[in-house]
Amino acid sequence: MNNNKQQLVLDIRGQICPSCLLIALKEVTINADKLNNKEMSILILSDDRHATATIPDAVHSMGFSTTISKTDDGYEILINKK
Q: What is the rounded CA–CA span in Å between residue 51 and residue 76?
């Protein structure tokens, strides 16, 4: 495993679905090779509760896993390779 794993942080607070989902899917698609090779992860910062359902559902179907955490500012959705 690569100890120098990159993390892309997407701060999409203030956006609402479906915009949240579209932004996330665009970045996952652009970075799919790095995600698949476990070279990077994507951390999404969102304050839209619906994003905690739509984004994980979509990226799970693409072969990625998610971890969702509640924060004071909203939610963190971490996307990794399964």
A: 10
Q: Structurally, how many domains does the chain consist of?
A: 1
- Assigned domain for 1 exists: no
pLDDT per position as a tens digit, 42-64: 999 999 999 999 999 999 999 99
Query: What are the distances in angstroms from CA 59 to CA 1, 12, 43, 75?
Result: 22, 17, 13, 16
Answer yes or no: pTM beyond 0.90.
yes
CA distance 53 to 8: 20
Domain with residue 54: its CATH number is: 3.30.110.40
